[in-house]
C-alpha cells in the first residue's frame, strides 16, 4: 500500500541553525501539507501546497519557514534559524481526489532544538 | 474562532463498546475526520463524515450532526490494541484548494483487560 515517507526520523540541531525536513508524498496525490505537534499538544496546521504553490498557511508559518517541491517526488520544509520552541514532531501529509480527500500522514520527523 | 472539543481521557474494558464525542465550532465546514494516533506515531485515518448520519466501517462507526456541530466515534468489540489517542478534525471550507484540517486535542483511550 502506498505511503508517505519522511526523513530523517529524528533531527537534533543547535538553536539558530537551519534544518530541512524531507517528505515523499504518495505518488498520485496532488495536495501536500505540513503539520506540527508539540509534545502533549494538538496537531497544528502549518501549510498546504498545490500545483507548485502554497494554498494556505497558518500564523505559525512565518518568514522562518519555507516549503519547496524541488522535483516530482520530494516535498521539503525548511526552518531557518531554529528556536527552542520549534522542537516538535513535524508531519507531512498528502491527499488525492477521492470522496473524502482524506489526508495520509507520514511517520513524522522529531525535531529537537538545543 | 475555531474550537473542537473532546474528552481528554476515557477508559473501557476489552470487548466492550465505547463512544467518543466531539463538538466543534468552526468558521467553515467541509467534512469531519477521525484519526487514531498511537504514542509517538503519525495519525492514521479512521473515518470521514460530510453529511448527517452514521458511517460504518467494520468495528468503527462515526456519526455526524451538522446542525448540532457534533460527532461521535463508536468503537465496538474493543481490543487492547485500540488503546490510543483518537483525534477529531474538521476540514475548513475555504477558497481555492484550501483543505486544512483543524484538530481537537484528542481523546486518550485506555482499554483494560
Describe the structure.
Chain A is mainly beta and 114 residues long. Chain A is 0% helix and 50% strand. Chain A contains no helices and 11 strands. Chain A has strands at 5-7, 10-13, 19-24, 31-37, 43-50, 53-57, 65-68, 75-79, 88-95, 104-105, 109-113. In chain A, the strands form 2 sheets. In chain A, strands 2, 4, 5, 6, 9, 10 and 11 form a 7-stranded mixed beta sheet that branches. Chain A is globular, with a radius of gyration of 13 Å. Chain B has 113 residues and is mainly beta. Chain B has strands spanning 3-5, 9-13, 18-25, 32-37, 44-49, 53-57, 60-65, 70-75, 84-91, 101-103, 107-112. In chain B, a hairpin with a 6-residue loop joins strand 4 and strand 5 (44-49). The model of chain B has no long low-confidence stretch (mean pLDDT 92). The A-B interface holds A 31, 33, 35, 41-45, 48, 50-51, 55-56, 58, 91, 95, 99-108 and B 31, 33, 35, 41-45, 48, 50, 87, 89, 91, 94, 96-106.
**What share of the residues of chain A lie within helices?**
under 10%
So what's the overall shape of chain A?
A: globular
Q: Can you count the beta strands of chain A?
A: 11
Average residue-wise pLDDT of chain B: 92
- Assembly state of the chains shown: heterodimer
Main sheet overview of chain B: 6 strands, mixed
Runs of chain A with pLDDT <50, length 5+?
none
Ends apart, CA distance between termini of chain B? 40 Å
Main structural class of chain B = mainly beta
Count of runs of 4 or more consecutive helical residues of chain A: 0
Indicate the radius of gyration of chain A in whole angstroms: 13 Å
The ordered H/E elements of chain B are EEEEEEEEEEE
Strand content of chain A: over 45%
Which series of helices and strands of chain A comes N to C?
Answer: EEEEEEEEEEE
Give the C-alpha Rg of chain B. 14 Å
Shape of chain B: globular
- Give the mean pLDDT of chain A: 93
